[in-house]
Amino acid sequence: MLLRSMRKAEYSTTQSSHFALGLEHYAHFTSPIRRYPDLILHRLLDLFFKGELKSGRVKAAWDEKITGWAKHCSTTEKRAEDAEREIIKLKLLRHMEEHADKVMEGVITGIQEYGLFVQIDEFQLDGLVHIRTLTDDFYELDKKKLSLIGTRRGKVYSFGDVVNVKITKIDLLKREVDFVIV
């Protein structure tokens, strides 16, 4: 959850520092055979150490192209991460089809008028308990308390509560899971 709240790093042509490392000047790179941004940086370092960046013509040629490359690299990296996440989720959902009858312990990670979002830590699986499946009472959302509260019996489901759930539906196309509290 912490990583989700942090801003995604982007490639840029502007000089920046690295807060966590406490460095005023910072360049990120790994192996140039793995990632295109690293190859670009290695090429720039090579030109710098050879003294070729002092040439106005060479510097102008790089200046003209590098902003576009940085933007393109950020876009394609995000696209690759999104694709990886989708494949992992699809594989997880296919695996979970075999565990549909299993009672699992989860944590309420979100609450809306229409239900509870629950995460199964054991599998890092997120799903929804639809409010219509909570048949023991009529539940209303209390936004201040981040809770669903039963109007007759007073049963409360709050953010962070541990609940036992079973899978009722897996939609592979939408990559969604529905749970029911047991």
UniProtKB/TrEMBL annotation:
Q: In its keyword annotation, does this UniProt entry include Nuclease? A: yes
UniProt-listed SUPFAM superfamilies: Nucleic acid-binding proteins
PROSITE patterns noted in UniProt: RIBONUCLEASE_II, S1
Stored InterPro entries: NA-bd_OB-fold, RNase_II/R, RNase_II/R_CS, RNR_Ribonuclease, S1_domain
Gene Ontology molecular function: exonuclease activity; RNA binding; RNA nuclease activity
> What keywords are assigned to this protein?
Exonuclease, Hydrolase, Nuclease
S1 motif domain: residues covered = 101-182
A GO cellular component annotated for this chain's UniProt record is: cytosol
GO biological process annotations for this chain's record? mRNA catabolic process
| The protein's name in its UniProt record | Ribonuclease
What organism does this protein naturally occur in? Candidatus Scalindua japonica
Lineage summary = Bacteria, Pseudomonadati, Planctomycetota, Candidatus Brocadiia, Candidatus Brocadiales
